[in-house]
Design brief:
The structure is a homodimer of 154-residue chains. By secondary structure, the first copy, chain A, is of the alpha+beta class. The first copy, chain A, contains seven helices and five strands.
Chain lengths: 154, 154
């Protein structure tokens, strides 16, 4: 078995035993070495964003002191939900290995597939009502930011 | 102007002035009272997941001591990226008001629209190579979790 994925599975198992959250683990690797590990800690931390990949990304960023993880790879025991997929993108991680699929996650009761279907426009999100208001006022910070010649891009 | 959105805009402006990150702000409200505010802090914290909505959700969850924010609303100065949209979903927030659109964000250089297009299958994600490996081993934690009668759902 792939060594890094094996460690991700161990993280997932540890998280279940300690009742920290869902059955998910992730490992971030750079140059063949583990930078960080993470498991789902939604229950432990009361943070709904504390999915395994997000936990691992935050730890890797903290350890490396940068938000750009473009020299890293991520191993995750399950195909990331859209939140985590997008977080991997924002972290600029270019390579991802995943184990179980979104359908596997749906079978044990997780909404990953539902969310993908919503974002793909296949179904309407009946759980979230959204409405656009005050667009012109919200463009004021955009303009200020766009004109800032000294801003650090991310 | 809507009071809560006005505060979200002020958070965004404060974040730009302090060079904390992108021009985005968010406010979480419960029963007409502000529970938390957030602005993009990717630069300040070196955390690529520190978008305004995620920051506000983490603070609200910490303040209320629970991951379930189903009695809250969120005001955000920009249509959330898929990461934040999904985080709002995982936090079970049922009502969202947003100001600027994903197209407005694209115009000042942010990838929100790109990510939505990727997740909708409209374009291929050339920035992220993904590959499924070791599915059967990764299903072991799923099975253990699924059989745990005492697990706390989230």
């Amino acid at each position: 078995m792939n060594n890094f994925m094996e460690i991700a599975v161990q993280e997932a198992l540890k998280g279940i035993r300690k009742k920290e959250g869902g059955p998910f683990g992730a490992v971030i690797v750079k140059d063949g070495e583990i930078i960080s590990v993470g498991n789902n800690q939604v229950i432990l931390t009361n943070d709904p964003t504390a999915h395994a990949e997000i936990v691992a990304i935050r730890r890797a960023s903290e350890k490396l002191g940068r938000f750009d993880l473009s020299d890293c790879e991520i191993y995750t025991t399950c195909e990331p939900c859209p939140m985590c997929y997008s977080a991997i993108h924002w972290a600029k991680i270019p390579i991802m290995y995943y184990g179980a699929s979104r359908d596997d996650a749906a079978e044990i009761g997780f909404d990953d597939k539902y969310l993908y279907d919503v974002l793909q426009g296949l179904i309407t999100d009946e759980k979230l009502m959204s409405k656009q208001i005050e667009r012109s006022e919200c463009l004021i910070p955009f303009k200020l930011y766009d004109e800032d010649q000294e801003k650090k891009l991310y």
